[in-house]
Amino acid sequence: MGDSLSQVPEGLIGGYQGGLAVKILMVVFSSIALYNAIELIILIFLVFNQYKGLYFWAMLLSNVLGVIPHAVGFLLEFFAKGPLWFAVTLATIGFYFMVPGQSVVLYSRLHLVVQNLNVLRQVRYMIIFNTIVLLIPTTILTYCTIYVRTESIIRGYNVMERMQLAWFCAQEILISCIYIWETINLLRLRPDKDPTRKKIMYELITINVIIVLLDVALLVLEYVGFYALQTTLKAAVYSVKLKLEFAVLRKLVLLVNTRPSDTSSTDHEEYPNFVNPEQLTGDITHAAPVRARTRSRYPWSAISMDSLDRSERRGYSSETTRPP
């Protein structure tokens, strides 16, 4: 480990000189990321009626200015196409919007299951603090490693790059764990005669566990020294996690709005695929106008049942189920 920390990561300067198999994998990972990002951009504009709100902008910018520049930038860097400064800058901009952007997406729907305002506030402060503390030093060390290349700077970059990835992964895992915990608490509000609600809870937990496992996979590749694979896989992983957001959001809305008497209905037995835009229309980032006494303290991240398609609302309660 000590020797590897003193060496410039393979591919950061002069392109990747490794085997063909690794180069093929890098192209495959980047292609998956670009495909998912383009598909998500189309779906976002088909799904949302009003192009505003924290959830909308976090999803859109994480794809347009996050996944796409990150994937393209590292392809240019590893295959030595064009100026190095341009490739590194493009990849850095993509990282800024993609990785912290994922945490913002997670935060923007956190209010659906968390009623403790202090927890919501602390999560928001954590995202802001970690973004500032981790991104600025890593960016400076990246350019210094490329253009100065002293041993102390290279070692500092390798340490900071590993710490940055681990820190952001821990942040996303923490937010996912909050979801899992609060979702279990939501289920406890209902009796055992609520099988559909229980099924939704397990599906929601499974999606969050998949997100955690994807983060762990990135950490493993980073710490075993596969820098090129880890950076190209990262864009693919985050594009997949953003696609899973459609599934998580839909299930959360269903979970917190289903009445016990409705769960015996067959309307939701076949839950539509989350990438089908016909199943979800309207602005799911904003609540319908309500009286001031019931207005959310977080209007920028509210999600309205009235914005869903009529078929999506069938069987939903007119009153949102909330934990005490």
Write a concise synopsis of the structure shown.
The chain is mainly α and 324 residues long. It has helices at residues 2-5, 20-47, 54-78, 84-108, 117-147, 151-188, 195-223, 227-257, 310-313. The longest helix is centred in the middle third of the chain and has 38 residues, at 151-188.
Describe the structure.
The chain is mainly α. It has nine helices and no strands. The chain has helices at 2-5, 20-47, 54-78, 84-108, 117-147, 151-188, 195-223, 227-257, 310-313. Helix 2 (20-47) packs antiparallel against helix 3, helix 3 (54-78) runs antiparallel to helix 8 and helix 4 packs antiparallel against helix 5 (117-147).
Q: What is the CA–CA distance across the termini?
A: 50 Å
- What percent of the residues sit in helical stretches (DSSP H or I)? 55-70%
CATH architecture: Up-down Bundle
Largest sheet, if any? none
The CATH topology is given as: Rhopdopsin 7-helix transmembrane proteins
Which outline best applies? Answer: globular
Strand content: under 5%
The sequence of SSEs as H and E is HHHHHHHHH
How many structural domains in the coordinates?
A: 1
